[in-house]
Amino acid sequence: MRDSVVILPWVRTQYKRARRSPLHASIRGLTSWTPMQSPEEGFTVVVGCMHRLAPLATANLRFLEASEPEGLREIILVFDCVESDLPATVKRARDEWDGPAPLRIICYSDRQAQTASKINWGWVYSWLSWSIGVGAASTRHVLLHDLDAFPVDPGLLSGQWRRAVESGAQFTGVRQYSGNGVDASMNLVTTFELVLDAAYVRERFHPFDAFNKIRMVNGRYIDFDTFLHMQHRSPSRAVAPVAETALVHPSQLICHYTDFISGRDDMKHKAHNLMMLPYFAHIGSDSSHIRSATEQLERGPGGSIMLFDRELPIAHLAPAHWAWMEKQIQRMALAIRGAADDLTEAYLKHFVERAGDARTVGRETGEAAVPAR
């Protein structure tokens, strides 16, 4: 019995590694970096961006533009397309940028774009974009900022960098990672808003080391997410928690979006946050989705709406989930405009109706409360 406890995870590990080996072979040489000779103190924000969701990038820039400048040396957006396919709205945002640090946009090479598109897996895109950004940074520290994470507190990013410096850790995250075999005893941290010591990383590792790895550790099967195996091989990690009031970050939004539009998942059984995308696009200069969604919702309490040319089920979403989504959107609206605009209010009216008694906006008290308009 004891032998089977060890053998079964070992067999699973070898099988999964063999299945993933063709993928590894195709991406291993897609990007590279060199050790940093004289790293600049401070930090660089790196955002992996999807050209199909360009409005999310321009929406995020509105919050990044308001960020406190302490320690911030550069913001790098890495897009999953070649330069000629970069959306005009992104080019315009770059030209009009007036933020606390220089903004640089890097696009994939032909080979990178073709390979990533052929594989069409979100983990390849995120790994490649982050690795390109880490390799392009001139600062000792790099903060990996998610495309669907919005820093509503202007001091959030510089605060995370300061805490990373104070900790002296190679990797500082907002919370411990748990899942896919990783547990709290391993003391690994999540990748979103991760601050890493780029000088250490580029000296000790290659970009491929940051990609998802399947390993057997202490008799357990583990599928290390992006940057986690690199963390596991490093001496120190630290946790710097982020308050609910500082960051709006809908869980798995990008993963659900890619699975939804590709047809891999119809979202019928997922507590998805895709109904937040029309608002994100709206504040990022594309109001077509929020107008269309509002018009469809006005016709009655249907079980689905058309979004991104696909039918999105929404009837199964719980009232508390509608309440949570409304709260996050209202929090963002307060941060950038002081209140939601009329188009947003018309859209959110349907969130309020579906939330019913579960609504929290205007009802909660305490630091995390969001007032009603």
Concise summary:
The chain is of the alpha/beta class. The chain contains 13 helices and 13 strands. The strands form four sheets. A seven-stranded mixed β-sheet has the order 3-2-1-4-7-6-10, with helices on both faces. A two-stranded antiparallel sheet has the order 5-11.
Beta content: 15-25%
Oligomer: single chain
Number of continuous helical runs: 13
Kindly give the count of domains: 2
Radius of gyration: 21 Å
User: Quick check: average pLDDT?
Assistant: 95
Q: At CATH's second level, what is the architecture of the largest domain?
A: Alpha-Beta Complex
Helix content: 40-55%
User: What gross morphology would you assign?
Assistant: globular
Sheet with the most strands: spatial strand order: 3-2-1-4-7-6-10
Detail the poorly predicted runs. Answer: 1-5
Q: Any idea of the CATH topology of the largest domain? A: Spore Coat Polysaccharide Biosynthesis Protein SpsA, Chain A
Which structural class matches the secondary elements?
alpha/beta
Cα end-to-end separation:
62 Å
Give the C-level CATH assignment of the largest domain.
Answer: Alpha Beta
Largest sheet: 7 strands, mixed
Element order: H for helix, E for strand:
HEHEHEHHEEHEEHEEHEEHHHEEHH
State the total count of DSSP E strands: 13
